[in-house]
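[Meeting: bench + compute handoff]

Bench side (C.D.) handed over the final construct sequence. Compute side (W.E.) agreed to return the predicted structure before the next meeting so the bench team could plan truncations. Sequence as handed over:
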Amino acid sequence: MLWHMGEASTAPASPDDLLSRLDRIEVRHLRYFVRVARKESITAAADELRVAQPNLSAVIRRLEQRLGLQLFIRHPRGVELTAQGELFLAGVERLLRGLTRLQAEVSTTGTAVRVGLCSGLHPTVLQELEQQFCTHPDGTAVTALEPRSVPSAQQISLLRRGDLDLGVVRLPVDVTGLATAIIRDADLGVVLGATHPLAAHDSVDWHDLRSQRLLWFDTHRAPGFAARLLDDLIARGWDPELHRVESDHRPVFTHLLRSNDDLVALRPRCAIEGEPSLVWRPIASMAPHERIAVVAPAGGIFAELVHALGSASTQHA
């Protein structure tokens, strides 16, 4: 069936008018047009593209209507390009080649990955992530991780909305629907000033801690971990008075512990590395744990890498 597009206006179209006609045209529509032009058959092109022939016909028709051009002459044996169609084909092929080159150039510059980090992490955690995720799952290089300090519970919401690519959270949090790998599972010990009376002990038991206050930060950063830890302490016979502070900066942490002989903190051993005025002592029995996990959307492009990271951590545990 021959389609008639109607008489074209003799007034030249402005550049804005021409561009506005392309507003709803997708790159795939242009690729479809090129395939039909090369095959000289909508039916043959539909078979190669694996789309229904009526749908492909409708795409070509909408393309002609948006452009205000007749691109093809239809006849029983197939289609052939009009003079306007020939010009349009040459321009579309240049455009598609340019987009391919642009994609290749952008890919070589690398991709930044948005990573949420809970508070109190050891610096090596980020370094290890950079090694593990040095290549983006789409094959491009990762130029850098973009770390963002975000409370654990909030990271889960951001991951599910697609506002983060990866998260590093302190468990427990609700990781339903997320790929999860535990990268740290460490005993918590007692951190105290080097002159604290308990610093002379090789280890600390729960009875020793009953007279101690516990340095405590805002629970909104990891409410699940905070609630579980307090329950564990009470179950072990220590219901500590909490010394609450809003800042978790290292200088504040160090100053408070160094200046108070009845104040301790619970941290993994790595938390005080490089700080000579503090000491770490293991808890003699039933030490609570801190578990740190990397999480990503289960159906997302980082899920496989997270699962592989979890498997490697299990093998080396």
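W.E. noted at the follow-up: The first strand starts at residue 72 and ends at 75. C.D. will use this when planning the next construct.
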